[in-house]
Amino acid sequence: MNVPLFSPLQIRSLLLKNRLVMSPMQQYLSPEGLVGAWHLVHLGSRAVGGVGLVITEATAVSPEGRNTLFDTGLWNEAQVAAWRPVVQFVQAQGAKIAVQLWHAGGKGSHAHPAAGFHYLPPAEGGWVTKSASAVALDKQHTSEALTLTEIADLVADFAQAAKRAVQTGFDAIELHAGHGYLFHQFYSALANHRTDAYGGSFENRIRLLVEAVDAIRAVIPDAMPLLVRLSAVDFSDEEHAWHLADSVRLVAVLQQHGVDVVTASAGGFGMPDRAKVVPLYQVPYAEKIKADTGIFTGAVGLITTSEQANALIASGQADLVLLARELLRDPYFALRAATELHADPPVPVPYVRAFPPLTKG
Fold first, then answer.
1. How many C-beta atoms surround the C-beta of residue 155 within 10 A?
2. In angstroms, rounded to a whole number, what is the distance separating the alpha carbons of residues 267 and 254?
3. Bridge-based pairing state of the strands 96-102 and 53-60
4. Is 181 an active-site residue?
5. I want to staple 74 with a disulfide (CB 3.0 to 4.6 A). Which of 155, 161, 307, 348 is the partner?
6. pLDDT 10s digits, 232-284
7. The pTM is what?
8. Residue 175: which of 264, 99, 269 has the closest Cα?
9. One of 181, 198, 285, 332 is an active-site residue; which one?
């Protein structure tokens, strides 16, 4: 039976076996930026569970790019070695794996969530955070504005991390450019008050993200997909907030610079109206971006059932369905969804005895 959710998708040289994606989710279990047994089981179990693509949690390109001291990293060779067995295990299950590269910018230097997630000053093991402008993004401290030299260094950090991603064996790279982190701090005028080449006009505010995309495309294979996660809207009524039309305009530029997939999330500097936070509430962002640009899009936001996920693909609203909390609740969502939708479940050989063959006809 032809089930859209379980149809393959080709992105450059990467062939995904289905349209289900594990969304990045921070684990806060990586001192020194090193992944370990938890990540092997956490990411590996979702690959065993049948998703087509696993995207790692946000992985910092430098020590100062982290949100906490326990975020994963890809700024040194020890981290490459730690990631490699995780990558290889995921791939051995027939899934693909992408690393999400990020820099928290002015939202960095926090204590572990279990310790209150408060700002961690340098005297307590934190660091001086840098952003587009000197603003208090977490309401606890004010970041310093990045200099032009520091901006150039940041772009180089992303390129070096991308090289390490290739060295590690990742199948694709995603840039986290949403949720109020560094790239979002530049393209949204709510956080960017600069008056130089990186502030003011739309073209200036997107410049850092475009430069990072160019730097990464220059050092990774042409066949390797490059993804970007955006905050499609700012969830703010302020005059200079970022809107969906801005995201469409940005994505059109990113396409020209070699971006293949955009996941349309939202928020980072504001909160949505809680009455509007309902199943599929963010899907229209992906739908609009896809319709206006033709780029592959990923949909997120309270997608919890196989019927919802399949309908998104069948209707053409998005090309990929990203699941977060639902995959925490059920690592084997893909196997369950295939059974519920009468598709052939992507069952690992050791588990076949629990999944009788479909009745044909």
1. 18
2. 20
3. parallel
4. yes
5. 161
6. 999 888 888 999 999 999 999 999 999 999 999 998 887 777 887 889 989 99
7. 0.96
8. 99
9. 181
